[in-house]
Each structure stands twice: as structure tokens, then as C-alpha cells.
Design a protein that fits this description.
CATH superfamily: Survival protein SurE-like phosphatase/nucleotidase
Helix content: 10-25%
Strand order of the largest sheet: 3-4-2-1-5-6-7-11-8
Number of strands: 11
Number of domains: 1
CATH architecture: 3-Layer(aba) Sandwich
Oligomer: single chain
Order of helices and strands: EHEEEHEHHEHEEEEHE
Shape: globular
């Protein structure tokens, strides 16, 4: 029987996580290990400078006072006694596309799973204003995809980033990570005591995203599936400048 770990960055009580629990209930031994409160946009942060408290919310259902990456680490190294067969993170309220992959706690949990050796890790997201029916469809799609991928899973060191539009669709497009958006703005305000504060604003949207990107698929009404790798080394032919005049010796493998 497959062991399946469900997590998120919206917290243990998030409706999207419950959608995943329902969709995966018959697919194996399901564990839920999620943050005790919302931890959106925390990226791959892990907690190293304080102990992590854990609260039981039922059999195989644990809330961690930490980040999504903390949840995956604890589950793989302790609660499950090793990496599970499947890790699914979500269903997140808000797309995770383009540069969101670097900020998202939802995506970070899937990335941490891949780093821990899990061969089938998914991050699942829907549009921020999508209703519960959309989250349910996204969860069921993730369950069907996991069932079809089989025991071989994904290539080592990779995970799938899924984004599902609010309108019902059976169209799935395999995509690449979307292009970075232009810089956004920062809003300056003042609190009731007159002290200034700053609020990070949104970035301008991409009006015509390329069809092969996550944004392009969603704009066309398709579900987006992006195979993401943990390898961040640039594949191009960039070379460091010659620093021999500064006393350094360049070594080339």
C-alpha cells in the first residue's frame, strides 16, 4: 500500500487540504502533516533556531508549528520513518506560476519532498478567488494523475507543479515555468499614530503569455503541469572572466 503525505501552506484547517484528503482517501495510507496556521509565501524556509511543537488532530493528522518544508522534513525523517511514496501539497488558494515558485510555501513542500528522495511529489494550486468546487476538481485531478503515474513516479530530483483554472476543463497542457513579471510597486501608508509603513504591491500581469508557459495554459483555459527540477545550474556557456592578473588561477573541469 502506498504511503501518501498531504501538506500545504494554508494551514491544517484549510478547505483545500480537506479536498486532497477526500480525493486520496482510497489511494493508500494517508498522512496529513501541515502547518498549524497559514504560512504562505515562506518559500523553502526551515526552522533551525527553535524547537518545533506538534499537535495531534486525529489519527495520522498532525499540525506543526513551523513551515511547509518543516512539515515534510519531520514527516520523512520521523513520523513516517522514511520518505513516503507520494507527497501532495495544496490545494493552494492562489496560482503558483512564474516567479511564484521561488516564494510559494506550497511549492516548497513539493520541492523538499523531492530533495528527501520522494519520487512522486506534486504542488496543486487554483486561482485565489476559485470556489470549493474548483479545489475539489483540482484534488481529484491530482489523485487521478498519481494513480496513472505508477510506482516509477517522476525523474529523480523533480516534482510536478499543477495549476487548475476555475472553469471545468479536461484539457491539460505540459508547460514550462512562466516568464518573470515586471517589477511591482510598494505602497506607503501611515498607521493611526502617524508612523509610516510599507505594503508590497502586486506585479503587473503578462498580457499575452507564451502558450507553452504555465500562464499561457491557464489563459487558454487549460490545466498547467510543469515538471520542475531542483537543479539550478545554468545550462548555457557563461564563463567567469580571466582573473589571472589579480593573482587567481582559473580551474576548468
Amino acid at each position: 500500500m502506498r504511503r501518501i503525505l498531504l501538506t500545504n501552506d494554508d494551514g491544517i484547517h484549510a478547505p483545500g487540504l480537506e479536498c486532497l484528503a477526500q480525493a486520496f482517501a482510497g489511494l493508500g495510507e494517508v498522512w496529513v502533516v501541515a502547518p498549524h496556521v497559514e504560512r504562505s509565501a515562506c518559500g523553502r524556509a526551515v526552522t533551525l533556531n527553535r524547537p518545533l511543537r506538534v499537535q495531534e488532530h486525529g489519527p495520522h493528522r498532525l499540525a506543526v508549528e513551523g513551515t511547509p518544508a518543516d512539515c515534510v522534513l519531520l514527516a520523512c525523517r520521523h513520523f513516517l520513518g522514511g520518505p513516503p511514496d507520494v507527497v501532495v501539497s495544496g490545494v493552494n488558494q492562489g496560482y503558483n506560476i512564474g516567479e511564484d515558485l521561488d516564494y510559494s510555501g506550497t511549492v516548497a513542500a513539493a520541492a523538499e519532498a523531492a530533495l528527501q528522495g520522494v519520487r512522486l511529489a506534486l504542488a496543486v494550486s487554483v486561482r485565489f478567488d476559485a470556489d470549493g468546487a474548483c479545489a475539489g476538481r483540482a484534488a481529484r485531478f491530482a489523485g487521478q494523475l498519481v494513480s496513472r503515474l505508477g510506482p516509477g513516479g517522476l525523474p529523480a530530483g523533480t516534482f510536478l507543479n499543477l495549476n487548475v483554472p476555475p472553469e471545468p476543463t479536461l484539457r491539460v497542457r505540459q508547460t514550462r515555468q512562466g516568464n518573470p513579471l515586471p517589477p511591482g510597486d510598494v505602497h506607503l501608508g501611515r498607521d493611526p499614530r502617524g508612523r509610516p509603513y510599507y505594503w508590497i504591491g502586486n506585479r503587473p500581469d503578462e498580457p499575452s503569455p507564451p502558450a507553452d508557459t504555465d500562464r499561457g495554459a491557464l489563459a487558454a483555459g487549460c490545466m498547467s503541469a510543469t515538471l520542475v527540477t531542483l537543479e539550478r545550474t545554468h545550462p548555457g556557456d557563461f564563463r567567469l572572466p580571466d582573473l589571472s592578473g589579480e593573482g587567481f588561477t582559473a580551474e576548468v573541469e
